[in-house]
Structures are given as structure tokens and as C-alpha cells.
Amino acid sequence: MKRLPGVLALPAALALLSFPARSQNVISAKSGLIHYVEGRVLLDGEPVEPKPGRFSQMRESSVLRTEAGRAEVLISPGTSTALKDAFWRRGPWLAQSSPAGVFLRVGENTELRMLSGRIADTRLELLSGSILIECAEMLKDNSLTVSFRGTAISIREDGLYRIDADPPELRVYNGRAVVEAGGQVLTVKGGRALALDGALAMRKFDSKGGDALYRWGKRRSEYIAMANLSSAKYLHDAGIGWRSGGWCWNPYFGMFTFVPRRGVWYSPFGYRYFSPREVYVVYEPPRRAVMNAWDSTPRYNPNLGYATIAPTPSGHSGTVASSAPPTTASGSQSAPLPRDSGSAGGRSR
Prior knowledge:
This protein is an alpha+beta fold. The protein is 17% helix and 37% strand. The chain is built from four helices and 22 strands.
């Protein structure tokens, strides 16, 4: 009976060893990795079925169609040979440096075609429905363009963007987009909406509100920010060089998360994404300081320490809205995992 724990541990050890073999299939040098789906989603007419560690990939001319479902697609995931080698040495974590980090979220009853999956020049065509684009990092040498009925929409900055086919409209919650249509070139900035019906009329809109697609995108952004914490800590502890922002596979959450190169990136929804060098503010205890030269006994001084992150309004630990600065530690609550398998614009500060 004493050997039973070792016997029970054997399947878990074998599962851990086999995890990297499954995860290698998610490495992609192209844009269009279908990261998460819920409900009925089709790729080139075939249902997308989520499997742990395995993701479908959009190819050039591929059509992604949602019916009673939604999908999250990673744009410009990129690859890094050094990080792939580190993955095989260090265990079931897959890290990828990335020249850009963009989450494309596809609403219900939407059809989207991939025109070019090149990392430096990703081009898509919206055929019907609605998409929400959360851009974390867009470098100057890279581009993301969405075409819609002869109109080309180029995403130029980190931010949050929405494109609807009915009624045809571009909304820029924050960031900047350049629109080319009918020989005209217009720049649309945060808080502005542009009609895509030929008139190209611009108006202001309430960038704080949203419908079901907006709320779903916010929830996905929160989940990914929750996964960021342990991923950033892993990269720091493993000593993996993180030369640019990018994706890191988190086996605990069963999905990729975005890890910025440095500082803390704030998503348009207010959640924080920590870099490996900044995540210490979450995990380390407050500092202790020497009070004076005559008394060298270290004593806790709250004015010299720092506060860890506070819970979100929904009660989840691990993320915090930028409108609610951290005040107290929140280690007593645990972060719930997303129930579905397979499966975040902002600035670093």
C-alpha cells in the first residue's frame, strides 16, 4: 500500500512528459491561429473542434464562419528557435517572441476570409457580421489590414477596434486607424465611428458601452490577463530572454497569454499584462528596510513597501482595472479557470 502514491504519480508524470509533444503543434509562423471557440464555428466548411494543445490554422483564402458561436484568432503569433529549444528543455511551457500581438474576436453569424497570413503584412476580408480587434503591440514594420466592400482599414496603433457589416461601420474605442475608400484617405481616432456605406460620415460614440460581443471580448481579455501572471513569472524564473512582447502557452489555463517585453501593458478594457521584469510586484512580499544607522534591525515600513494587485469588481484575483489602482493584497481569492478548453489596445508603463 505504501507504493500506491508512486503508482498514482506515474500517469501524471507520463502526461507531463507527453504535454510538449502535443503543444509543438501550436507553433506557427503565420497569422490566423484559431485560439478559442465556443458554439458552432466552421473553417472552410468544417467544424472547428477544440482539443487540448491543438489549434486550427487559417490559411490564405481560408474562410472562417461562425453561426451560433464565437471565435478568437491570434494575429502575428511569430516563432523563435531559441524559445522553442528552451521549451523542450524546461517543460510544458511554450513561449514565442512576436513582432506583433493582436487578438481578433469574431462575433456570431460572421464570415471572415484570410487574404494574407504573412506576419509582416496580415490582410483579412470581412464578408459579413462583426469583429472586435484588440491590438497589444503593433510595430512600425508590420501591418494589419481589414478589407470590407472596397474599403481598406489599416490598424496603425495599439488599441481596440470594431468593424460591423450591418450597418457598415468602423468604431475606434482607442488607437488610430487609416481608412482608404473611393480615392479618399481618412484617419479615425479613439472615440470616433466612421460609416462604411460610401458616405464616409464620421461621428462620436460612447466608447464605454457595448453589446454582447464587446462584453465577451472583455471577459476574454480578463481571462488572458489572469493567465499572464504565472506565465510572466515562469519566463522570469526560467531565465528566458524576452526581447519582444509575445505569446506564452500557459498549461494551467490551457491557452496562450500575451506577455509584454517590459513594463506593464494596460488593455483597453483596463486589465494589466505584466512583463517578466515587472511581475515581482505581484509575487514578492513588501520590502523590509533599515530604520536608521544606529539600529540595524530590519523593520517593516509600509511607506517603503508596495501593494500587490487588488481584485477586480467581479472578484477575480490576478487582474485589475486601471481605474482602480492597487491598494491591498488579494491572495485570499482564487482565480476561476475558463470552463471551455482551447481556449488583449493598451500601453506599457
